[in-house]
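Incident review: delayed structure delivery

Summary: a single-chain prediction request sat in the queue longer than the usual turnaround. Root cause was a stuck worker, restarted by the on-call engineer. No data loss occurred. The affected request and its eventual output are reproduced below so the record is complete for anyone auditing the incident later.

Affected input:
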Amino acid sequence: MYAVTVRDHVMIAHSFDGEVFGPAQRLHGATYVVDATFRGPDLGPDGILVDIGRAADELRSVLADLNYRNLDDEDEFKGTNTSTEALARWVADRLAERLATEEQLTALVVTLHESHVAWASFERPL
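Output delivered after worker restart:
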């Protein structure tokens, strides 16, 4: 199985609903380092799994929809705790839409790093 990973980052603000979140229930900021790993068993006709430049551009474009936004104010996230896990899925689903034509890709893993000691991922088929 081949894998290609690209990395970017995004800065957001949000709050959480639920006592389990403690002080994070209040509005706070987060900067995530975001990894998108594309997987597939075979290379395409050009000898690559996915063009790294295109993968990086698509990740940057998806993250631009979140960057410098208070997610509490975005209609798309109303009533949702925008946890690291939930945001990983949101990014993965949008990347999957953008790279659906890449037939050699079979899976995508998106990882959001909250810090150097904590991160969450979402994996989905393509």
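Verification: The longest strand covers residues 2-14.
Action items: add queue-age alerting; document worker restart procedure.
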